[in-house]
Design brief:
Layout: E1 15-20, E2 23-28, H1 40-51
Length: 58
């Protein structure tokens, strides 16, 4: 972490999903990656839970 970076726990989370074959994965700019899911909706739910602080941090 650089000196001018905000503390890790106060950074904004920006999530997205990416597809590889028949699997969809949620990702965040903080480095977190959710599990590969066959359901896009479940991957989006993983991302929502992560930004709400309910998912475990990687």
């Amino acid at each position: 972490m650089r000196d001018d970076d905000p503390p890790r726990n106060t950074r904004q989370h920006a999530t997205s999903t990416s597809e590889r074959g028949s699997f969809c994965t949620a990702r965040c700019v903080c480095g977190w990656t959710g599990p590969a899911r066959r359901s896009r909706e479940r991957a989006r739910t993983d991302a929502t839970e992560h930004t709400a602080g309910r998912a475990s941090e990687a």
